[in-house]
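Quick illustration, no need to memorize.
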Amino acid sequence: MEKKKWYKLDTAALIFPAIKQHNWNNIFRVSVSLKEDVDPSVLQTAVINLMPRFPSFYVRLRRGLFWNYLESIDEPPVVRQDYAYPIVYMGSKEMGKCCLRILYHRNRIAAEFFHSVSDGTGGSIYVRSLAGEYLRIKHGLKIEYDDTVLDPGEKPRIYELEDSFSKNAGKVAGRELGKKAFRLTGTKEPGDYKHLITAITDSEILHSKAKEYGGTVTAFLAGVMLQTIMEIQSSSVPYGKEKPVRITIPVNMRRLFGSRTLRNFVLTLNLGVDPRTGPYTLEELVGNLTHQLALKATKQNMASEIASNVSLQKNLLIRAVPLDLKHIAMNMGYASYGEQLGCINISNLGVVKCPEQMTEYIERVEFIIGTQKTYPNNCSVASFNGKTFINMIRTIKESELERLFLTKLVSLGLPVSVESNDLGGETEKCTV
């Protein structure tokens, strides 16, 4: 019998098993929609074929005496039909079998990942590779493999499996501090139901609009979101009693450190303003966020942030503490620090590319992150073939945030079409 492979959780992944709770854990989805309906038997074959190429994805979550870890599985996950809404809770029993789901619905292929396995970048490479293998089997497509779509016939590279956090930790530890931010609230939906609104716009027009306001697409969308949340706060909080409003922005560290890992390598920054200092125009907000990103998202600063996390993992006293006590301590730390500095996450996967041979078969690529432990709303963005898909997910009934945010985008001259999963589990489409 072949010995099972196992993987230490990378520095970012350690927190996710500790803070999971009933009906919540940190999972995300990447999907590819084809221009034809999916054949589930072909998709299952593609899943099987990718197993040797992506060993760190075909894993289950295990408990050790001192740390959680990921262990390879004998059989790949069985593809199944998609649910009425995305990011359905992945319980301990399911993660004990596999931390990866493969789903299909009509023309859509989707994978959902427990965040300890990978991040959006790694997940998108897996899904594009899965779509590539599907198209190769289905249509005999000859793909020119590259870094966006990996060849299933190749062996995994050592650098794809590395813990890039430990490798790139700085010598001096630093941690972002600040006052607690304003929190969005609402009426919690019963059970695990999640509302999803997808706004689709023209990527070129969006890029031009961001440039007009002096920022990147991420800074521009974050600026509009910042302005929206500031207005929501001002309508419910007395003047002078407002709290800082910040957007949590994940930064892909691969570009800064030259990493090509398929595991987690993202750190988040909480960027924003304090409304008590005075009013801000949208141009000022975008400019402010752009400067904050330039100041904080540097190799030196991020290496220092990495060092803060890695130092705890390497501490001999902490390493000797039993796992259950570690979980208690991590939960307490996360409650007092983890999400207290931000209001909502905006995670931009950027422009998703794949070999030219595949493009004519693909309609869209999407990225959806679940709500955070204490954020009832979240937002994720991906662009493909000239279209940008903005996915806004929430676990509360109230849709005020989405309504105000999308209205602002339209008022700024962006053409926006909107889809929602609130019509009997099917997607409803309209144009704003």
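The radius of gyration is 21 Å.
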